[in-house]
Design brief:
Structural class: alpha/beta
Largest sheet: 8 strands, parallel, barrel
Number of helices: 10
Number of strands: 10
Strand order of the largest sheet: 1-4-5-6-7-8-9-10
Radius of gyration: 18 Å
Shape: globular
Length: 307
């Protein structure tokens, strides 16, 4: 199964090219029908939404970026508006919502910070869970926390249960998310680069196979419905490990922005044929054990698979 990542901005009429992510754009809510309608007709089954609140600095106090990411679940913000619009426009489309605070915090990190700039886990987990539950209340079929805060899966699952939504909203965990060099185009697209430091203290080190395995088992134990590995191609061994550790769970992997841009750049340089390489990478992820792939190639795959 393919899931298409799309960027939703708070300008309702936006259709903005993302220079570092070829072929992708930031979309306003009013443009979603024209953008996704043809893809749904071709067979698009699922999307995952990433909010891009570019107008926060000019907004009211409630929607301004702050230390706890207050705009993340603003009812007039891009994600909640997009969830409701897509549920109305495309009743059979499966809608996942990425849950993180980095796009909405004043400091660009994925949680609440101590005074010394390090992550303060308990309030971070509480805030992430609040946002996830509010996305579920808005109608998301799936919430997908990408922050990598310890304990957030349990907190979200409890929040969904208390809201009466645990049997209506799937919980997809970015269980093994590595501190990769391949996120650059995404951070350009989402405006989510940290204002200081990096995220290596809460994302996994590239060599951390054991840490990844422990994180996968932890999230399974805390109630995740789907497990995800991110990025995909450099971590096929982790995908295979996840399939072994959680054989009864759907297994997702995210072919991230840098992987996509790298493949497109190589094809543009004449190194290989784009379609052939896109399918080769997809086959490798499926071979490793993935059952769900998040990919910016989704529109092309819909065309290629119909040929």
């Amino acid at each position: 199964m393919l899931m298409y990542p799309i960027f939703i901005t708070d300008d309702p009429e936006a259709e903005t090219v993302i220079a570092s992510l070829p072929g992708q754009k930031r979309w306003g809510v009013e443009k979603l029908e024209g953008f996704l309608g043809p893809l749904v007709k071709k067979g698009l089954k699922s999307v995952i939404l990433f909010g891009v609140p570019l107008n926060c600095a000019k907004a009211s106090d409630f929607t301004r970026r702050d230390e706890r990411g207050t705009p993340a679940d603003d009812v007039s913000g891009p994600v909640i508006l997009a969830i409701k619009r897509l549920r109305s426009l495309f009743p059979d489309l499966y809608i996942a919502a990425d849950v993180c605070l980095c796009e909405y915090t004043s400091h660009g990190h994925c949680g609440v910070l101590h005074d010394d700039g390090t992550i303060n886990t308990p309030p971070s987990v509480q805030r992430i869970a609040e946002v996830a539950v509010n996305y579920a209340k808005a109608g998301a079929h799936c919430v997908a926390p990408s922050d990598m805060m310890d304990g957030r899966i349990r907190a979200i699952k409890i929040g969904l249960m208390e809201a009466g939504l645990a049997n209506k909203c799937t919980l997809m965990s970015y269980s093994a998310k590595f501190a990769s060099s391949l996120y650059g185009p995404f951070r350009d697209a989402a405006g989510s680069a940290p204002s200081f430091g990096n995220r290596k203290c809460y994302q996994l080190p590239p060599a951390g196979r054991g840490l990844a395995r422990r994180a996968i088992l932890r999230d399974v134990g805390e109630g995740a419905d789907i497990i995800m590995v991110k990025p995909a191609l450099p971590y096929l061994d982790i995908i295979a490990s996840a399939a072994e550790l959680a054989p009864d769970h759907p297994l997702a992997c995210y072919q991230v922005s840098g992987e996509y841009a790298m493949i497109v750049s190589g094809a543009n340089a004449g190194v290989y044929d784009l379609k052939t390489m896109a399918f080769e990478t997809m086959d490798s992820m499926l071979r490793a054990g993935a059952t769900l792939v998040l990919s910016y190639f989704t529109p092309q795959f819909l065309d290629w698979l119909d040929q």
